[in-house]
Lytic transglycosylase domain-containing protein
Amino acid sequence: MNVVVSIPLLVGLIISAIQPASFLQSTSAHSIGPESANYFFIPNLTPVLPPVYFCGESVPLHEEAVARRLVSALVTNTHKNQALYRIRQRAATFFPVIEPILARHRIPSDFKYLPLVESALTGLAVSPKGAAGYWQFMPETARELGLTIRRGQDDRQNLVKSTEAACRYLNYLYARLGSWTLAAAAYNNGIGALLGNIKRQQQWDYYYLRLNAETGKYLYRILAFKELFSNYRSYGNIIPSQALAYLSQPIDSESFSEDDDVILPEILVDEATESAIQSSNQEVRVASSNRVDDIPLPNAADVFKGGIKAKLMHFSGLQRGQVWTFHLTRDGFAGEQDVEEGDVLYAIVEDIDSQTGKLYLRTDKLYSAGDKHTYHLTLAAVDASTGRVGIKLPEVDQLKAGWILTWKAL
């Protein structure tokens, strides 16, 4: 996402002076040890780097700048060996949950490494700007993707639900951009900002775009985790021997280090991990039997298609958890459900965000006045002009019978 959690593991290296071109001529690739501080400045890194791919797209390592960025990311990610080992532990636990969800949504499996960069696969991670969870969603984006955020429940910390939401978002980005590398960049920088750079530079290749420092390094950080976890033996001339030992060490879920420099206190990480595993097993089985649905996505009013109207009949107070009653004003279609005039929505005040001036109303059930039956149907009140979840926070005296809102299915 736009703000990445600060992880001690990913502290950048300070690159030293450029090594002359004659260095490569006088020193063979096999004699270059990891202790060589100026390794990054060998004019041609291609002979010592294996082919690298992201989602089937070849990384142009023949370009010197691209090769240097990848090598820098590889060495940076091995700077904290124990932290790297702990991330491997969490990956070994969570990848079996994430991978089938990615496959069901037809997302390349390489995206399982994205939450390593975003949160070190820690559900309790929170960025300074409020992005939270494994996939680091901002609150508004999370709600747009169908996640619930309210007191006592934050779906961003639910591994299955947040991964499902990330897949919907990534599919949307890929449909707009036509490239998984650009989709990854847009996940970090936002699709609007990325499209602005593409338009100004007339360049559709991530590796040749001039981007802000964070987004410019973002894909390389993902690639570094992929290569270190799946192909570390090919980088013996780059990675320090101690880091290679940690990468080859068998995973021991019972092994914890007091010196491990992680984002959160160890006991909180362990509790969150255990909770994620327990909740994930059942949810994966349930989700695998459901059809993958597309929903309107954040910052995309152009994909909002209509909505249904409902009129406020009973207002019980402007506080979280209060239930308001709405009646539909006309026949319509919400999700896959036919709805009729007079059907009843019992909406919960999910959140009141005073900072953005937004009110969030949500309902999970619709009562059919015609057949006297209650249907499971998740709806959210939206801004009628954009289709975005959340409405302008009204004055209390405006909340009275007859107030009409637009709703969309999530």
